[in-house]
Specification:
Order of helices and strands: HHHH
Shape: globular
Structural class: mainly alpha
Strand content: under 5%
Largest sheet: none
Radius of gyration: 13 Å
Number of strands: 0
Length: 82
């Protein structure tokens, strides 16, 4: 793994990072779906920059995940305001 990039994240992001790490270690059924769900939640609540840093840290791009841009999450931001 690469050097830790996230130095000041909140408890929420750290908890989801721990869940991602657990899924990567155990690879139980639906592990990839759970990681995607955790990444969406991070992007939604902490921003896409933080989600992209998590992708980099865990080298998820090598497993098929790709970084996201802000415009891809616009539909979720719209739902958030309701």
């Amino acid at each position: 793994m690469t050097k830790r990039l996230l130095s000041k994240t909140d408890k929420f992001v750290r908890e989801l990072e721990n869940k991602i790490e657990k899924q990567l270690d155990e690879k139980r059924p639906y592990w990839n779906n759970l990681i995607s769900m955790y990444l969406r939640e991070i992007a939604y609540k902490a921003g896409t920059k933080v989600a992209n840093e998590v992708i980099d840290y865990f080298e998820l791009d090598q497993l098929g995940w790709s970084k996201v841009e802000r415009k891809e999450w616009a539909k979720y931001e719209h739902q958030k305001k309701r």
